[in-house]
Write a structure and sequence with these properties.
This protein is α/β, with parallel strands linked by helices. The protein has one domain: 2-Layer Sandwich (Nucleotidyltransferase, domain 5), CATH 3.30.420.10. It is 44% helix and 17% strand. Helix 6 crosses helix 7 (164-201). The N and C termini lie far apart (49 Å).
Length: 202
């Protein structure tokens, strides 16, 4: 299946978590999928959606609720995980698009939960790790968190950190800025090469 490159899916996942290790009878589960569609050419962020997911094998701890602002009552109106995957496939054409996240954890979480539930991964095999990309393009010695990356890029952090919908939106803005910077650098290199070629022919 060919990949559609004009629009890219930026995903951010929030999961049940605990201050320490999970209780023996529980496991981390995805409770929110933040989605932002990025127009690659214009850099415009086209959609901003929070897909809330009802946990089935864990409960939201007080630590998790404080971190994410997602409470058990909030998640009662969420959908089953299988339904969230179906939304990504049908509404966002996820199997046909390159998708991105800030770091590789979200990809691993999706792969693990799909495997343990016997579900196909809703995304394509083309995943872009923006956390590594940002560090490489900025010549950093190590990867940095999303808020630090936004600050280094001179971009505002909108919404609430550790809410999937807001982190996906901010990550998409960061990726758009990286794409613009890369294109300007390429254009500058092309102009420089053209100038050198013109000088050499004169």
């Amino acid at each position: 299946m060919s990949r559609s490159l004009e629009r890219l899916l930026v995903i951010d996942v929030e999961s049940t978590c605990w201050e320490g290790a999970p209780p023996d009878d529980q496991e981390p589960e995805i409770i929110e999928v933040g989605v932002c569609v990025l127009d690659v050419r214009s850099g415009e962020r086209l959609t901003r959606e929070s897909i809330l997911v009802r946990p089935e094998r864990s409960v939201v701890s007080p630590f998790c609720a404080q971190l994410t602002t997602l409470t058990p009552n909030t998640l009662e109106r969420g959908v089953p995980f299988a339904r969230a995957c179906a939304i990504l496939r049908r509404k966002y054409s996820a199997p046909r698009r390159v998708w991105a996240s800030y770091g590789d954890d979200d990809r691993r979480k999706f792969e693990h939960q799909c495997r343990t539930r016997g579900l196909p991964l809703p995304f394509s095999a083309s995943h872009l790790d923006i956390k590594s990309l940002f560090a490489l393009l900025h010549g950093l010695e190590r990867e940095v968190g999303l808020l630090t990356a936004l600050e280094l890029a001179g971009l505002p952090a909108e919404g609430t950190h550790h809410r999937g919908v807001d982190d996906a939106w901010n990550t998409a803005g960061l990726l758009a800025a990286l794409l613009v910077r890369w294109r300007l650098a390429l254009a500058g290199d092309a102009a420089l090469l053209a100038g050198e070629s013109s000088t050499g022919q004169s």
